[in-house]
Structure formats: structure tokens, C-alpha cells
């Protein structure tokens, strides 16, 4: 194993932008499909060889993937699997995004309790400490957003960390005003707030996320680089940008040289690095994602470690958990 990969494997890692919908390997989905008396459209190892041309295609593909998860016991198993898989590569803490619109077979209370149970079991068995945000789709209504926040309030568990929003802003247009009341209510209830923006939207989407939704963090945010003043503001205000290089190279930038990761680091933006949709990206590990980022943007080991520290600062967990994560990073730094 080369030195960089070994360093990254050993480094304690924190991941803040990963969709639970895209963490279930083909073999696990085959197991779920069999329980429903269904068969997968392709062999499990080829399940993710889909031809998603763009984000909308890809989101439809996720709907089909999630349909194989037939019971809340399956959903808990999927969450438990994610926690165990994280630990295998030394991800100590992760926040997964779950968008209930991909899971029409389950009620909101059932989703919250199943994912909580799966993450509890995973951590008890030595897996990563995982939390989750529930995510709105950009094409939902204000009423649906309000209902999601009400369910979060009623069914709150310690694993449920926040509210997020994802989906295709190129199709929905600006929706900041529509979702502002739900985000404000979630904030009052003490939930963390994160928003996909600056991927299928340009800088205006990032501005909406900051000013209408009052998001604590931005998922992606890379297209903020198209507006130098906005980029400066993000850096000055230390707004965390949860950047996903491989995902962006697959779905967003035709020419890899357009990706602004190096620029974001150079202006001092609060960059964290995540996988977004690991199974869709060839069962991508976070170790491999970080290796690619390191090579692509000529990141030093110190910069890679710094991204983990920024992720701890940005995480939607309590100070005790953050202190333990910082201690693990410090121990690694002093021995490496
Ligand atoms: N949901 C899952 N992956 C996504 C992405 N890359 N952008 C927006 N919504 C998503
Ligand atoms: Zn995402």
C-alpha cells in the first residue's frame, strides 16, 4: 500500500455528506429483494452500473434502489451496515442524509425509529457513531416541509441530528422562501440545518441557503466559486462546505479542471470532504475519495487532517462527542 493510502486509512475520519440511499451494496439489496419475493434487475455486483446521465436520472435511480428495502427491519439493517462499513476504514463519526421521498413505503415515525435502531446496534457492535439528517426534496411543498419538521419534533431521537434539503435545483428554481418557515422551526427545535446548494444551482442557490434557510452548512457549495465575493464571504464566515469531488466529477463538471477544490482551500474556505453517493460511484470508500482529492488538489497531509478537524467543528453533535473526536485526531497527528 502506498504511503498516502496508508496515512488516509489510519487517519480518524469524519464524514458529513453521504446519502444513506446510496450506501447499500448490491448483495444487501439482493437479500432484501429476496425477502419480498423479488429479483434485482441485474446481478448484485452490477446493480449500480446504471446509466444516469444527470442528477434527475440519478434521483429516479435512487427511488428504484430504495424500493427493495421492504420492511423497517431491512431499513434498520441498512443503517447498521453503514455504521459497520464506516468503522472498517476508521470513520469514527458520520452524518448520513435520508430523504423520505425515496422511501414512500415507510412512515416518518417508522423511518426515524428504524434508522435510530440500526445506528444504535451498529455503534454497540463497534461501528461508527452515526447520526442522520432528514432531507426535504426541492420539489416538495411548504406544507410537506412543515409535516416533516413536526414528525422530527414528535419522534426525536439522539441520532436525529438535523434537517437538510436536496434534489434538483436546476428543475425547481429558487425555493428558499418556500422552505424558510420549516427551516426556522427546525432551528427553534434545536436541530442542525444543512442544505444542498451550489451544485445543481449556482451562487444564487448558496445565497438562498444562507439567507433564506439560514443553513449552518452547505452540501457541495462548489459553484460558489463562480462568484468571488460570495466565496470570500463563505471563507470569512467559516461556513462549512461539504465537498464531494468524485460525485461532482461524475454529475457536474464535464472537464475536471473546472473543479474548484484547490481554489476553495486556497481562499481558506471551511472545506470538509465526503462521498455523497458511494455505491453509485463504484462502492467508493472515504479513504479512496480523500486519496483522489489529495492527488487532484495537491493536498498535504496537514490539509487532509485539517478537513477532519473542520468536520468535527461542523458536526451536529454535542461537545462531549466533539472532544473525543478531537482527541482521536490529536493522537493520530502526534504519532504520524
Ligand atoms: N441526492 C442524492 N445525491 C444528490 C446530489 N448529488 N445532489 C442533490 N441531491 C442528491
Ligand atoms: Zn448530496
What is shown here, in short?
The chain is of the alpha/beta class. It is 50% helix and 15% strand.
Describe this structure in words.
- This protein is of the alpha/beta class and 336 residues long.
- The chain contains 15 helices and 8 strands.
- It has an 8-stranded parallel sheet with strand order 1-2-3-4-5-6-7-8, with helices on both faces.
- Helix 6 links the parallel strand 3 and strand 4.
- Helix 1 (3-10) crosses helix 13 (286-296) and helix 6 (142-154) packs parallel to helix 8.
- The longest helix has 17 residues, at 72-88.
- The two termini are 16 Å apart.
- The mean pLDDT is 97.
- Bound molecules: adenine (ADE) and zinc ion.
- Residues 17, 19, 166, 196, 219, 276 line the site of zinc ion.
List keywords for this structure.
eight-stranded parallel beta sheet, 336 residues, binds adenine, 50% helix, alpha/beta
- Range of strand content: 5-15%
Tell me the total number of β-strands: 8
Distance between the termini: 16 Å
Return Rg in Å: 19 Å
Q: Could you give the order of the helices and strands?
A: HEHHHEHEHEHHEHEHEHHEHHH
**What proportion of the residues is helical, as a percent range?**
40-55%
Q: Return the average pLDDT rounded to an integer.
A: 97
Number of helices: 15
The description of the largest β-sheet is: 8 strands, parallel
Bound molecules: adenine, zinc ion
Given as residue ranges, the uncertain stretches (5+ residues, pLDDT < 50) are: none
Which structural category fits the helices and strands?
Answer: alpha/beta
Strand order across the largest sheet: 1-2-3-4-5-6-7-8
What would you call the shape?
globular
Amino acid at each position: 500500500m502506498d504511503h498516502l493510502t496508508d496515512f488516509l486509512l489510519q487517519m480518524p475520519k469524519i464524514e458529513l455528506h453521504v446519502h444513506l440511499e446510496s450506501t447499500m451494496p448490491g448483495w444487501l439489496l439482493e437479500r432484501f429483494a429476496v425477502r419480498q419475493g423479488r429479483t434485482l434487475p441485474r446481478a448484485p455486483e452490477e446493480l449500480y452500473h446504471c446509466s444516469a446521465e444527470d442528477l434527475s436520472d440519478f434521483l429516479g435511480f435512487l427511488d428504484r434502489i430504495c424500493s427493495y428495502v421492504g420492511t423497517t427491519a431491512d431499513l434498520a439493517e441498512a443503517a447498521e451496515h453503514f455504521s459497520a462499513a464506516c468503522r472498517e476504514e476508521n470513520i469514527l463519526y458520520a452524518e448520513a442524509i435520508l430523504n423520505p421521498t425515496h422511501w414512500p413505503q415507510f412512515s416518518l415515525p417508522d423511518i426515524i425509529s428504524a434508522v435510530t435502531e440500526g445506528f444504535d446496534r451498529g455503534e454497540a457492535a463497534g461501528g461508527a457513531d452515526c447520526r442522520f439528517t432528514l432531507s426535504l426534496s426541492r420539489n416538495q411543498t411548504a406544507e410537506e416541509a412543515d409535516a416533516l419538521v413536526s414528525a422530527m419534533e414528535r419522534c426525536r431521537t439522539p441520532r436525529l441530528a438535523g434537517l437538510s434539503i436536496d434534489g434538483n435545483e436546476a428543475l425547481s428554481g429558487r425555493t428558499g422562501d418556500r422552505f424558510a418557515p420549516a427551516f426556522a422551526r427546525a432551528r427553534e427545535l434545536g436541530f442542525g440545518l444543512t442544505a444542498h446548494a451550489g451544485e445543481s444551482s449556482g451562487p444564487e442557490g448558496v445565497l438562498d441557503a444562507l439567507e433564506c434557510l439560514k443553513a449552518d452548512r452547505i452540501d457541495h457549495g462548489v459553484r460558489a466559486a463562480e462568484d468571488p465575493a460570495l466565496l470570500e464571504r463563505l471563507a470569512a464566515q467559516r461556513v462549512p462546505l461539504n465537498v464531494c469531488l468524485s460525485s461532482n466529477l461524475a454529475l457536474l463538471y464535464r472537464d475536471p479542471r473546472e473543479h474548484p477544490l484547490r481554489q476553495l482551500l486556497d481562499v481558506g474556505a471551511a472545506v470538509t470532504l465526503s462521498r455523497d453517493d458511494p455505491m453509485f460511484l463504484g462502492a467508493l470508500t472515504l479513504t479512496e475519495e480523500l486519496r483522489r482529492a489529495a492527488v487532484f488538489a495537491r493536498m498535504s497531509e496537514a490539509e487532509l487532517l485539517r478537513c477532519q478537524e473542520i468536520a468535527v467543528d461542523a458536526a451536529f453533535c454535542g461537545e462531549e462527542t466533539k472532544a473525543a473526536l478531537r482527541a482521536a485526531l490529536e493522537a493520530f497527528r502526534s504519532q504520524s
